[in-house]
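Reviewer 2 asked us to include a model.

Predict the structure of this chain.
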Amino acid sequence: MVEIKRESPVRFKVGPLKTEVRDNWTVALEYDDEGQGPWLVDLAHKTRWDIQDNKVGKQTPGDLAVPEVPGHCTFADKTLINRMNRTQASIYHLGAAAPVMPDFSGYTDVTEATVFIVLFGPRAFGVAEKLSNLDLLNPAGNTPFLLQGPFCHVPCQIVVLGKVAADSGGFLLTCSRGYGDSMIHAVLEAGAEFGLRPAGENRFNSWLDGLRQ
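Predicted model (structure tokens):
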């Protein structure tokens, strides 16, 4: 039987230097010239779940608590849980592999239905300021925190994951898959003056490990 080949909605003009096939995804591990940052990494292969239930706060995906307050996040063991509203939360699995989805009707796997990128490193928030009025630099926000609203005029979920306004700062962004080409074009164009370049999963993992220390 022919295996299904999974395709990211993100396309960069340059191809990766190193790749790895994982769960039918071709994962870019490294690019030839990734520069000094900021960096843009395609994380389409990372498993994402949506959960909706009128008692969503009682759920414990991956034995982690769903935050009580919308906009708050729980982050541990490379699993990120974001409270969206009274009845809904999103779950991002940022490790190499995700657990089996719980046997509960409220869960939906949205991995292949959405764009999923991360923008991080020096001047990452400078790029964001050109593309959204959302306050990613809100000093009252304890990272990680979730924002929902327009980015490049597209409805998005944005999680500020790194230290706000620091060179090590950064954010995750997800939106509907159909916006993949236009979103990446807009982000790279806005980031050109800052030296924004595509990077592979290896650089993302190094950054993520640094945040958790």
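The chain has a mean pLDDT of 92. The CA atoms of residues 163 and 169 lie 5 Å apart. We have added this to the supplementary material.
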